[in-house]
Amino acid sequence: MKTILVTGAAGQIGSELTLALRERYGNDNVIATGHKTKPSDELFASGPFQFINCANLNSVAEVVKKYNVGTIHHLAAILSAVAEAKPQLAWDVNINGLYNVLEVAREYGCSVFTPSSIGAFGPTTPLDDTPQDTIQRPNTMYGVTKVAGELLCDYYFKRYGVDTRGVRYPGIISNVTLPGGGTTDYAVEIYYEAIKKKHYTCNLKAGTFLDMMYMPDAIKAAIDLMEAEPGVLKHRNAFNVSAMSFDPEIIAASIRRQIPEFSIDYDVDPVKQGIADTWPNNMNDSAARAEWGWQPEYDLEAMTKDMLKELSKKLKEG
Ligand code: AKB
User: Fold this and answer.
1) pLDDT of residue 151
2) Burial level of 117, CB count in 10 A (0-12/13-18/19+)?
3) Fewer beta carbons within 10 angstroms: which end of the chain, N or C?
4) Which helix (H) or strand (E) covers residue 223, if one does?
5) Which residues pair with residue 246 across a beta bridge?
6) What CATH class does 171-212+244-281+297-317 carry?
């Protein structure tokens, strides 16, 4: 049987997607790979794990050959704030890494799931009800790599018939692994601080609306899209997917409904604010809903209740 490979498996999405894929397809059929980040004990113990470097084609090819891989979930990427601090690294990982994965997929006949992001939009994109197909002129290195990645995936499908698929993820909120250097990270940190200090100092301004999604829905999106009949897909790559849109005041109010003493103030990070100001306030994800039945399960209130419950347990256990 062909196996599934996950790159970036120790990262925020990878750590949970790998376990979900193992539960669905069998532990030994899902190969977790990472570059430097140490995997959690659960990830390491539950199935194969190997260190690879996606920026090196042979490193990807060897693992695909060794495990007879049929599908690659390519999650290894540098997020937006780190990409602004280290643009050359972002290009190497986000572009050369994806190119290598696509080349290996072409040679070995693999399908590829690649996340794009709300970061693929820019200041001239319509920010409200952002259409599926619209202006994409981002002015960040992260955005440049995401748009190029979307186009590269489309190209490999059209030119070589590689079964490429992907979504534009919004900010992802989770209680297992922390995100590493994104603009939307505040929406995760706020829950940790709400439990630890009942106060949060936010690095984005009140009124900064962004699309967001709870991790179980992010995982569902990846699995549902990869399991969709190819004939139903008109877009294939870069589907807008969203579950909710809020600003820091709205998420704070949602936390306050569970923790009434919670308070928020602001110390704005100009780099992150500059990035967030060019991203959609809310995306239109009707193409994903129509083509492969995208339907999120969590709204803000359901997510807040679950995040606070799960994090309280986790922080108590130490
Ligand atoms: C980031 O903030 O960089 C990511 C993203 C929205 O792509 N979470």
Assistant:
1) 98
2) buried
3) C
4) helix 215-227
5) 210
6) alpha beta
Give me 295's structure tokens: 């339907």
From 84, 114, 117, mutation site for ligand 1 pocket: most ligand atoms within 8 A of C-beta: 117
Q: Which of 142, 156, 169, 200 is catalytic?
A: 142
Cβ–Cβ contacts within 10 Å for residue 19, how many? 22
Delimit the CATH 3.90.25 region(s) of the chain: 171-212+244-281+297-317
Mutate to test the pocket of ligand 1, among 79, 169, 244 (most ligand atoms within 8 A of CB): 79
pTM score: 0.97
- CA torsion, points 24, 158, 239, 70, in degrees to nearest 10? 10
**Region(s) of the chain under CATH 3.40.50.720:** 3-170+214-240
Which positions of the chain have pLDDT values less than 50? Answer: none
Q: Determine the distance separating the centroid of ligand 1 and the alpha carbon of 153, expressed in angstroms.
A: 19
Nearest CA to ligand 1 atom 8: 171
d(CA 235, CA 81): 28
Which atom of ligand 1 is least distant from the CA of 118? 6
Cα–ligand 1 centroid distance for 68 (angstroms): 32
What confidence score (pLDDT) does residue 317 get? 82
- Give the residue carrying structure tokens 């820091």: 248
Tell me if residue 142 is catalytic: yes
Evaluate whether 204 touches 189 at the Cβ level (below 8 Å). Answer: no
Which one of 147, 167, 184 would you pick to mutate in the ligand 1 pocket, going by the greatest count of ligand atoms within 8 A of its CB?
184
Coil vs helix vs strand at 173: strand
Residues with CB under 6 A from ligand 1: 79-80, 117-119, 169-171, 179, 182-184
pLDDT tens, 261-281?
999 999 999 999 999 999 999
State the DSSP code for 28.
Answer: G
